[in-house]
Amino acid sequence: MRIVRREFEGGGRWGVEGDGPWRPVTFPGLEPLGEEGTGARPGRLLAPATPSKIVCVGRNYRDHIREMGHDGEPLPTEPGIFLKGPNALADPGAEIPYPPFTRSFHFEGELAVVVGRPLRRVSEEEALKGVLGYTAALDLTARDCQKNDLQWTRAKSSDLFCPLGPWIETAVDPDHTVVRTRVNGEVRQEASTELMIFPVGRILSHISSFMTLEPGDVVLTGTPAGVGPLEVGDRVEVTVEGVGTLGVRIVAVS
């Protein structure tokens, strides 16, 4: 099932799209639809989440660990976690200003999980039962700030640093799908989630052991090898097979 969030009379509304026309729906943890029967038509796609937090996993693909200069180090024994704030969300098709505080603005395409019910101290199996669905994410990173700042807040959680979309798909096998990132049409990243060090169930179970995941929260599962810098004018597309393609453009600061 394809769950879509669209602009509707100045706000976001949820619906289901697919073989038939858009129809409104309500899911636990998603904002209410509001009044029905207005006759208004849904508009542009919005980021398919309204999370209290965005939880991210770093170093979850061996090839990415090597390209980041950590080859030879022991593989992590548990998922490495960092946070992005809800302010980082950006809609599908957004124009992302190149941040003036960095000279090394990088793309990282990822599979994202949208949580469907509260998860607290759950097993891997129970964690997967609590997933609403899956979407594509772009973990934008100010790489120089990531290296130089005390924490990763500016490098990872600045405004619009987490484009998400284009929608949520429920019928996806998160451990057997392909994540592919293109920049200006050229494939820069491509890997199966089979290559993740920690599968989705393990990631969610681990996070839930110390932090309650609430309905609507988003979990980014890590990026494969091939990350790199962006320039003004670049178009970035992240495709998750079985979901669709998230696309944004990098623009000059106005």
Name the assembly state.
Answer: single chain
Count of β-strands: 18
Q: Which consecutive residue ranges, at least 5 long each, have pLDDT under 50? A: 33-38
**Beta strand %:** 35-45%
Instruction: Provide the gyration radius in Å.
Output: 18 Å
Which range best describes the helical content: under 10%, 10-25%, 25-40%, 40-55%, 55-70% or over 70%? Answer: 10-25%
Compressed to H and E, one letter per element, the order equals EEEEHEEEEEHEEHHEEEHEEEE
Structural category:
mainly beta
Task: Determine the number of helices (DSSP H or I, runs of at least 4 residues).
Answer: 5
Termini gap = 39 Å
Major β-sheet annotation: 10 strands, mixed
Mean pLDDT: 91
Anisotropy-based shape: globular
Quick structural overview:
The chain is mainly beta and 254 residues long. It is built from 5 helices and 18 strands.
Spell out the blueprint of helices and strands.
Blueprint: E1 2-8, E2 11-17, E3 23-24, E4 54-58, H1 62-70, E5 80-84, E6 89-90, E7 95-97, E8 105-107, E9 109-115, H2 124-129, E10 131-138, E11 141-142, H3 143-148, H4 153-157, E12 162-169, E13 178-183, E14 186-192, H5 200-208, E15 218-220, E16 228-229, E17 235-240, E18 244-251
Parallel strand pairs: 4-15, 6-12, 7-18
Antiparallel strand pairs: 1-2, 1-12, 2-3, 4-5, 8-11, 8-16, 9-10, 9-15, 10-12, 13-14, 13-17, 17-18
